[in-house]
Amino acid sequence: MKSTRCFFIIVLMALAKIGLAQVREVSISYDGVHGYDSALGQVLEWSSLKKEPRVRSSDKPPEGLRLRWLGTSGFELGDNKTTILIDPFVSRPPVSNPLAPLIIDTTAVDELILKPMGDRNVDAILVSHAHADHVMDVPLVLSRSTTTDHRPLLVGDPNTVALVESYHLSAETRLLAFDEGVVHYLIGQFGDFTVEAVRSLHPQYNFLPWRGPEGEIEGHPPFTGFDYLSYRNIAIAYIISYRGLKFVFCDGAVLQNLQKIGEADLLFLGIPVRKNNTIADALAALQPSFFIPTHYDDFFVPFHEMDQFDVTIGLTVPLPGKNNNEILLVDFSRFGEFFEEFPNYIRKARSKLPTESQSFLDPRLRILKPLTYYSLESLILK
Fold first, then answer.
1. pLDDT by residue (tens digit) across 170-180?
2. pTM for this predicted structure
3. Alpha-carbon distance values, 350 to 85, 249, 281, 337 (Å)
4. What phi and psi values does residue 305 have, to the nearest 5 degrees?
5. What digits encode the pLDDT tens for the residues 53-90?
6. CATH number of 42-305+337-380: 2.170.270.10, 3.40.50.720, 3.60.15.10, 3.10.129.10?
């Protein structure tokens, strides 16, 4: 009996190791992907460029100011003292059945978000809105990052707070409801980082007549994809300042309250929306030095299953309240097209400026590899 028990323990340990290895050994091919593949034109992956100033990439956290894209709209931004997470999400559950409960991939969260950070604390978790691909992993990240000596600050809308509370987690929170005409919040100081938030709008994608599930989150986990609801269709944009640099993060291409943001150095926008977006307006108002597109990857494929950086999503989605009508999302982001479209956004943005200012607007399109650290120290020392 004892030997049988030992055998099963060994088997379980072996299976666990296989599972971890699958997540650790993430290998994504960039062949055939615009912005990465030189055969398709200019390569705009940031660390491949040797000018203006040089930005280097690495698998491990570099010294000083660093940035890591977690896929979708997820980011890790930090330095040697402070770490801020924005929309951390790596579970990426397949949605062959959109009405099935979504289960947090604890191994992916531990191995892809937390382990690379080493012994550094998470100081703040900023959430744009409470759809699954932005907030699903937050309860686990929060619980893993909370100790008797350290509690991260969770920033988000009422649905984000309700979701965390449904897991019976006690968190220090900053609730952003944007009531009574409030469109701007000063969140606070985290080391050398100053964080602000402005009200924005969740985009309406070109192929859908709605902005995703909306309402008040209720009940208890596990939730289906349609249980993760945006609050009043608000999507919070975050402004983070660091030693003279200003970052602006927005999950979609509908960025509002530009006058509250002011000029920025780095603008991160989700790009699948091509109609009725505010990209040109944002370029004109914020005049960023760098434009970093996000939320164009296929977030329905787990990282450990990806063998191609696939920007096409083949997914059939039922439309709520539409008598079981369905819509096929064949080409979600059209990432390749965005490279051809971006110069048009620049021209449109310049047309909104006085003639004498138009030549000074020159945003550079830069692409990040998922799960890769980028050292941004050279931007400070420019």
1. 889 999 999 88
2. 0.90
3. 33, 22, 9, 21
4. -105, -5
5. 899 999 999 999 999 999 999 999 999 999 999 999 99
6. 3.60.15.10
